[in-house]
Structure formats: structure tokens, C-alpha cells
TrEMBL record:
Residues 13-134 form the Mycothiol-dependent maleylpyruvate isomerase metal-binding domain. This is Mycothiol-dependent maleylpyruvate isomerase metal-binding domain-containing protein. One of its GO terms (molecular function) is metal ion binding. InterPro entries: DinB/YfiT-like (IPR034660), Maleyloyr_isom (IPR017517), MDMPI_C-term_domain (IPR010872), MDMPI_metal-binding (IPR024344). NCBIfam families: maleylpyruvate isomerase family mycothiol-dependent enzyme (TIGR03083). It comes from the Bacteria. Residues 153-241 form the MDMPI C-terminal domain.
């Protein structure tokens, strides 16, 4: 699952999406529900993302004492949650820019790139997706992909991380008693992935498959938001129940 972008591309995406998240959270207000994460308020979203930034930076620094529960509670209780969020964002960006390229740090996806690049990539997509959550809260519903500034190249990379990194894990819930094949096709960037779904963990390959049971198509951005369950713009040809199954089983917050 090699990264398709450079380190600075991911760092820039973290900085940009972090700013978008912060500004949208301020506009929405902390008590507003998040349509794309219905169990959360905006305050929960800010505390979660601020905790994740601190957790990622701690992994890169080799800090074994970082406590994620305590960190999230700290964010929830902060007198100024957005200042607390910004401090964690800045610390993550500084860590990513200063740790050596060969830093020894843990990663948690199979065939991941080197830790510095892995964490930059992971936090770029973590922060970008959650910035869409904050924007959705600010507008009170699903955000049209046209109303975001996410680059197609970043979107395609995020699809790849989801399909080849997250969904093949044993803990992934995407399963089918009858073997099914899903083809994902970005008609603007040309990327294609074939997912073989069965009672075992998903097997994902790049490229098209013969006779897929369903084909998910759209721009890279439409598919990025749709496959991460933040939008509903992609077209689905074939078995419609596979789209419904995706909504129920391939959800990551």
C-alpha cells in the first residue's frame, strides 16, 4: 500500500484541513450535532481529532506515556477547545517536519510506508475526512463534494488507503456469505480497484475485475467522500444491496 504523494503534500493537507475543521467548528457551535457522525456533537469531534493528532505525534516521538483517554477528556474539558485543538495540530505538524525520515515508530496498516510517511498520510486523511464532518455540521447536512477544496490526487490516495489498508484488516466488518466483487472506478483520475468480498477479510487489487457484481463510479472526490460514508454522490451499477451493505459495514469514524 505505497503512498502516492510526497511528505510535504500530506503535511500541507493536514494544515489546510485542520484550519477548515477549526473554522467550521466555530461556525457550527460546539453543541451542534454532526450529521455524518450522528453520535457526536461538534465538541466531541474537536476533542476526538485533537486527541488523534496528539496520539500520532506521540507515536512519532516515541512517547510511551501518551494516554488517549486522558487526552480526549482534556480536550472535552478545555476552556477554549479550539485553542487546545490548534496546539495539538501545530505540535503534530512540527513533529512531522522535524523527525528524521528513518524514525523508528509503530504503524498499524499492512504494507505501510515508512513511519514518518505513514503517519503523515494517515493524519492527512483523518483530518480531511473530519474537516468534512465539521463542514457538514456547519451546513446542517451532507456536504456536496463541489463545496470542498480537496484535490483529486489526495482523494484518490485516500480511497487507496481505505481499500488497501483498512478494509483488508481482520477487524474490518465488510463481509459477505456469498462471494462478491466490487469495482471502484474514478473516471477523472483513472484509478481502479477491485474488492473481493467474502466471509474472510477483503482482498483488494488495483485494476479492473471481470464481471463485478457492482461498480461504484464517480470523480475521485465523490468516491473518497462516499466510500468514507461522508456523502452520497457516487453512482452504483449492479447489485444495489452492496451499496447498502457498504453503508452498514464499511463505516470508519
Amino acid at each position: 500500500m505505497p503512498a502516492s504523494l510526497e511528505l510535504e503534500d500530506y503535511v500541507s493537507a493536514i494544515a489546510q484541513s485542520g484550519a477548515v475543521l477549526r473554522d467550521a467548528a466555530e461556525r457550527a457551535g460546539f453543541e451542534r450535532r454532526v450529521p455524518t457522525c450522528p453520535d457526536w456533537t461538534v465538541a466531541d469531534l474537536v476533542a476526538h481529532q485533537g486527541m488523534v493528532h496528539r496520539w500520532a505525534a506521540a507515536n512519532l516521538r516515541g512517547d510511551p506515556d501518551h494516554d488517549t483517554e486522558r487526552s480526549q477528556a482534556e480536550g472535552a474539558a478545555a476552556p477554549d477547545p479550539l485553542a487546545w485543538f490548534s496546539a495539538g495540530l501545530d505540535a503534530l505538524l512540527d513533529t512531522l517536519r522535524t523527525v528524521p525520515d528513518d524514525v523508528d515508530a509503530p504503524v498499524f496498516l499492512k504494507d505501510a510506508p515508512r513511519p514518518r510517511l505513514f503517519w503523515a498520510r494517515r493524519q492527512a486523511h483523518e483530518t480531511t475526512i473530519h474537516s468534512v464532518d465539521a463542514l457538514s455540521a456547519a451546513v446542517g447536512g451532507l456536504l456536496p463534494s463541489a463545496d470542498t477544496s480537496i484535490a483529486p490526487e489526495l482523494a484518490a490516495d485516500g480511497i487507496d488507503e481505505l481499500l488497501r489498508g483498512f478494509l483488508p484488516r481482520k477487524k474490518s466488518r465488510l463481509r459477505s456469505p456469498e462471494p462478491r466483487v466490487i469495482l471502484v472506478r474514478c473516471h477523472d483520475t483513472g484509478h481502479e480497484w477491485s474488492l473481493h468480498v467474502s466471509g474472510d477479510p477483503v482482498v483488494t487489487a488495483t485494476g479492473a475485475a471481470d464481471a463485478p457484481d457492482a461498480v461504484f463510479t464517480g470523480t475521485a472526490l465523490q468516491l473518497y467522500l462516499d466510500l468514507w460514508n461522508r456523502a452520497d454522490e457516487a453512482a452504483v451499477d449492479g447489485r444495489p444491496e452492496l451499496s447498502e451493505q457498504w453503508r452498514a459495514q464499511a463505516r470508519i469514524v
